Amino acid sequence: MADEQTLEGSRNPAVPPNCISPALDGAYPAGSVVRSNGTAGASTQAAANVAASARAIGIMLHATSAAGDHALVQYAGVVTLPTAAWDAIAGTSGGLTPNTPYFLSNTLGHLATSAGTVAVQIGIALSPTALMLQIEKSPSVNP
Q: Which of 22, 42, 72, 143 could cross-link to 61 by cystine, CB 3.0-4.6 Å?
């Protein structure tokens, strides 16, 4: 994850605390886990299949419809989304399972209840609609 200085330094005053507003390189649903794509101020979906793609920076709070769109990406605190958004990203029905840790999935932008190839915990579910972000900064490769 980018350091707090970089994240705070890139914030637009209209962007809420604990959020950034990068341009995305495609159309992605709300709840997608994103990472920097190496271009200043731009992001793409994260995935746990390889270490380079697993450096998650946060979760999108709303969908984007095209490349170049900006999205609010929350990197700390509690992310609250409708159960349907979590179902689409975590493959669940009825939202998140409370008190369950969620990890970055091997599938681009998705969450899972078990670690992918590169273990990156994203957070712990507080309720079916709320996830407390605890994004691991140093992912580890699963054997």
A: 72
Sheet of 33-36, strands arranged across: 19-20, 73-74, 56-60, 33-36, 42-45, 23-24
- Which amino acid, 107? T
Percentage of the chain lying above the pLDDT 70 cut:
87
Q: Residue ranges per domain, the chain?
A: 4-141
Give the 3-state secondary structure of residue 45: strand
Which residue do the tokens 């769109």 mark?
69
Output the CA torsion sign for 16, 18, 21, 24.
Answer: negative
pLDDT (0 to 100) of residue 89: 97
Q: Is the distance from CB of 33 to CB of 104 less than 8 angstroms? A: yes
